[in-house]
Amino acid sequence: MQEGSRWLLLVFTLPTSKASERVQIWRKLQRFGAIAFRNAGSLLPNTPENQERFEWLARTIRASHGEASILQIQAIDDLPFRALEDQFRDARVEDYTALIEDLKKLKPTVKGPSSQVQRLRRRFEDVVAIDFFTSPLRAKVEEALTLAERTGTKSNLQERGSAAKPKYQKRTWITRPRPGIDRVSSAWLISRFIDAKPKFIFGTNPAVHKMRFRLTCSRVSVLAMKATGAPLKRYASHSIYPTTKSAPLSKRYTMPTWKTESLDVQKDIR
Fold first, then answer.
1. CA atoms of 149 and 106, how far apart (whole Å)
2. What is the CA radius of gyration of the chain?
């Protein structure tokens, strides 16, 4: 805040025919964080940035055939400095409360911080920019946003399967009988990049073999794709999936089939 005058007061008038311009000015004042000072005008703390904002608004008003003046105010005799600070804090309560409500509506994601979280972060930063005297709600919103971002990042790491490979060692993998080159490639991927000592069986009914697992196999397939690089392409069919010793099978999860276009890989398979 600049030395001497603590406050800036913008006083202006517009012709009655300039209703749309009046609304635009009011919206700009709201965006700048100004509060109404009785019926006199709009008030902001005296900072270089706020001075520049009011000067820009004054030029806009004058360009619309209105009148505008910017006053620098040292003190107000019947309104202490602390009371004005509280008015600015109170003006931000609605903004922070709206952010808190929107954060409560967020749905869990496994793809990292969602675009919705990022939009809320930008909204929060806009509010902080006009929270001149640090509302008590700022820290609460910051904490909730950080938690939402951290939760998404943690889930994203789990989805990548970076820690899933050790859980898929010495597993039994099942696929349909009479495999073609695509499912043979899947078996090669598993033994080469996922399970060092796999066991493969052929069958059409996982329940017969007591197939049970906890992690979705898409994580394992993504891990295999990253390990092998460009020669491998993903197809829509599903064929191979592993057993584990955890929760009962509630529905069928399968590992996506992979097909190779690399002759070197096909030689390795043979």
1. 11
2. 32
